[in-house]
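Look over both lines before class:
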Amino acid sequence: MKKLLTLVSLLVLTSLVLAACGGGGGSTATDLLGAVKERGYILVSSDLNYEPQSFPKTDGSRPSDTACPADALTSEEIQGFDVDVALAIGEALGVETCFVTPDWDLITAGSWADKWDISVGSMTVTTARQQALDFSVPYYYTPAVVAVAADSGITSLSELSGQAICAGTATTYEFWLNNDMEGLGLPEASVYSSAPEGITVVPLSTDQECAQAIEAGRTDFIAYVTSETVVDANIAAGIPVVKLDGAVYSEDLAAAFDKSSSLPTDTLRAAVDEAITAMHNDGTLSELSNKWFGMDITQAPNQ
């Protein structure tokens, strides 16, 4: 009898704990899309140091009526191409879009522990990343290029042999510099050049920091690899770099979903695919691309 009473007591205690944690009256969603709609917002991972894709508003202030968690950013505090795409996705889902800013290598590794719902952060679709992540249809396409310090005198890729070159950690740019074609995971036809021979790879948290380091006078590397859109923005901002002619490879960029999510993501992926496809068809993505990049890079290279 004592064992039975003990068991009953444990069951009662467990039920009380669950009730206190929301287990008795919390979410009834059976998939991530349902959970997003139930709470009224979608949590998107972004990068505050990736202009013009994503960067802070200088005059932004948090609205008082936002549904976003206290530790998340709102659309009034962040801006850019990726941000506008994420906002349009949220609008299509009928929810508010909120933003968090984890490190890039944490995003690409997967196993997000449900800390955010989706990445809309100019992520290139690669075979390696597909081990941990699922991807939407692409929302734009970019060439990867090499930029060098303006006073370096370098005018061609071959002249970088034996030099130090910077790239963002866990980016396709770092994989390319290391000649890691498996990690790069792109179709052979999308890779136009090999990395120069004998180089030293200098990884920083993001490829944008490579440009900023050159601007600050750092001299332990002479060049960096990133999206052409980033280099164009760097040059427009007055950073003393020049772009070498010719892309080294091209990228398909898409929204990403964690395969380790505690709730199924298939319905959310389908809804995001539908939203992105609609934005391709009605010209929204082209308009946003022209707004932020001064050109339309939302069409596949073979179109």
